[in-house]
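Wait, mind explaining this?

_____
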Amino acid sequence: MRSAILLLAFLAATATHAQDPSTTVQRDTLTLLDSARSRPIQVALYHAQGQPTKGLPVVVFSHGYNDNLPGSYLGYVYLMRAMAAAGQYVMSVQHELPTDPLLIRTGDARVVRRPSWDRGVQNLLFVLRELHRLHPELDYQHLTVMGHSQGGDISMLFAEQHPELLHRVISLDNRRMPLPRTDHPQVCSLRSSDMPPDEGVLPDAQEAERYHMRIVPLPATIHNAMGDNGTPVQQAEIVRYVLEFLRQP
C-alpha cells in the first residue's frame, strides 16, 4: 500500500479522459506505478457516463500478446464499451512493456511462457488493489477476470491461484493454460474456429457438466478476429455470449 500512497500525485498528473459523444460510455486512462517492481502499468477504465459507480460489478480484461507494443490495453473497444454500457465497471490492463523479453514461441508453452503469465498475475493483483483504493464503492464480490489468447492464459492462471477473489473467469480462445476444473469461480471460454488449444486446456464433456463450465464454439470467428478487426457480426456474437454469462447469478 506504500506504493499507492506515493502515487497520489502521479496518478493525478497522468490521468487522461476520452469520451466519444456518440456513445454513453466514458473512458479514462491511468498510468499506475508498482514501486515494488519499478513497473509502470497502464489501465483504461470504462463505465456508463452519468451512471453512479456504487455497486457496479468489476470486469478486469487482459489483451492478447502483441509483440510488446504499447497501447494494446486500448484495444477490444467494441467489447469494453458493450460491457460498460451493460452496467459493468471495466478495467483493461497493459501487460507488456517494450523492454520486456519477447514471448518465447518454441518449446513447452506452459514452461517457457510461465514467467510472462506470472508477471501478468502480479499486474492484475496490483491494479486490483489500486482500483479498490480509488473506487472502494464498486462491487468486488462479483469480480470477473477475462482475456483474449495470452490474456486468457493469464486470466486462467489468476483464477487457479486466487479463486477466492473471483466470481467469474472468461477466456476468448486461450490456448495454453488449462481452464480450472472448478465450479467457483464460474468458468466460460469462447473458442475460435481455427486455433485448437493444447491438450488438456479444455474440459471434456463430463468435466464441463460436473463443474458447470460453459464452452462456446464460434464457427464463424477465427482467433485473430476476436479483437477490433472482427466484423460487426462477429463482434455482436461475442458481446452476446459475454453479456449472457455476466448476467448469470
About this structure: Residues 165 and 237 are 28 Å apart (CA to CA). Residues 1-23 have pLDDT under 50 and may be disordered.
